[in-house]
Amino acid sequence: MFPIAFMMIVTVVFISITTIIYTFTEDRIKLNERLRLKRAVLYAAGVRLPDDPAEIEEAFNNRVTEVKDDAERVRYYEIGSSDSSDDIESYVVIRTGAGLWGEITAGIGFDKDLEILQGLEIIEQNETPGLGGRISETWFKEQFSGKLPPLSAVPEGDETSAEQFQAITGATYSTGAIRDIVNSARKYAQREIQGAE
Amino acid sequence: MQGYKVKKIFSEDLGRNNPVFIQVLGICSTLAVTNLLKNTVVMCAGLVFVTALSNVTISILRNYMPSRIRMMVETLIIASYVIIVDIMLKAFLPDVSRQLGPYVGLIITNCIIMGRAEAFALSNPPGLSFLDGIASGIGYSYVLLAIAFIREIMGSGSIWGYPLLGDWWTNWSIMVMAPGAFFTLAIFIWIVKGVLDRKEIAAS
User: Best residue in B80, B104, B173 to probe A by mutation, most A CBs within 10 Å?
Assistant: First the structure.
């Protein structure tokens, strides 16, 4: 009997400790995740802000509208212009696709006609660090601004046209995954926002 | 006596009985997180924390713990500390937490922690067990940091994310993948063992 009682006591004590710590940090963790999503949406829309939580919060609240479906899930984000008019400047959609090791989730921004890419931000990825993981590097993400999807990849370092982007050497699969996510994001945006078939 | 023991713990864990290059424990994370120096530092800090505290806790409980279930108790204690590290990283270092991804959780299965619990904490008082945890953690860390340094500079041409080598350097892709870690670790063990063996021959 003693081993059972001992194990039960130890279990109760340690689970209580972790639960207390979790309860104290829960709000902070949720806030971090929310903030990260807001920053990603703004970044994908081409809005460049300093990494300051208050500023990101303010810009998001002033300019971004979440458009939701009946189940309260966000379908896309509308980004208003920086002056006080009600014009919509761009749209951002969040899409997930299959990467090499796990899923890649990205925010993709389009202009109001859904023709020109405003930006790309990687929200979640588990690609090989140093290879596919480089999809999160600034040079890679920045090259998407102003491109006209559907896009195709050219080798790293080559000249690109408006329909092309530079691949990552040694990460063919991850590059392809990003290409597919961006291209399907445009189809998704056209369907959701313009109602096109 | 106590001072002698402390010194022995450190010289054993850092040198002749090093968990990574002598006992070859904890190789999973040695291979997995050493492609970038920054990730390695956080991983090492997490491991030092978990090894030291789980050693103390197990040492305190060692006289009450029924020996039949001690493995269960040890695993539970180790897992609790790893959960705490994971929560803390998520709350206070969210970017690092995301980069390390599943590897923080994998500290639970790091053989060094269980190894030190079984080999040291079960038969030594809490104070010494704490120091042993710290020493094993450091012994693990400096090997990982050395490997991470070599892998990051050769694989990415950078250190701590800052590009050090210019355009003339072509990154060795293999260094950022698992095989690169195998090669680096093997060469590291080869050199260190060679030095240690030579010393022993010279001593005798």
Answer: B80
The verdict on a CB contact (< 8 Å) between A22 and B87 is yes
Residue of A19, A25, A38 to mutate, interface with B, max B Cβ within 10 Å: A25
Q: Would you say residue A10 lies in a domain?
A: no
User: For B112, what's the count of Cα atoms within 13 Å in the CB-facing half-sphere?
Assistant: 35
In chain B, the number of structural domains is 1
Average pLDDT of span A41-51: 88
In a domain, A6, yes or no: no
In a domain, B85, yes or no: yes
Percent of chain B at pLDDT > 70 equals 99
Residue A175 lies in a domain: yes
Residue B10 lies in a domain: no
Give the residue, B99 or A6, on which the prediction is more confident.
A6
Report ipTM for this prediction. 0.80
User: Which domain covers residue B136, as residue numbers?
Assistant: 21-199
The reply to whether residue B91 touches residue A3, judged by beta carbons under 8 angstroms, is no
Residue B1 lies in a domain: no
B43 falls within a domain: yes
Q: Which two tokens stand for residue A128?
A: 């090989």
Neighbouring C-alpha atoms within 13 Å toward the C-beta of A142? 4
Q: What are the φ and ψ backbone dihedral angles of B39, each rounded to 5 degrees? A: -60, -40
Give the angle B95-A144-A38 at the CA atoms, nearest 5°.
Answer: 40
Query: Which tens digits make up the pLDDT trace of B78-110?
Result: 999 999 999 999 998 888 787 777 778 878 888
What CA–CA distance (Å, rounded) separates B204 from B199?
9
Weakest-pLDDT range from A112-126, A142-156, B164-178, B183-197: B164-178
- Overall domain count for chain A: 1
pTM, entire model: 0.80
Task: Classify residue A133: in a domain, yes or no.
Answer: yes
Element holding B149 (H helix, E strand): helix B126-155
Look up residue A193 and give its amino acid. Answer: I
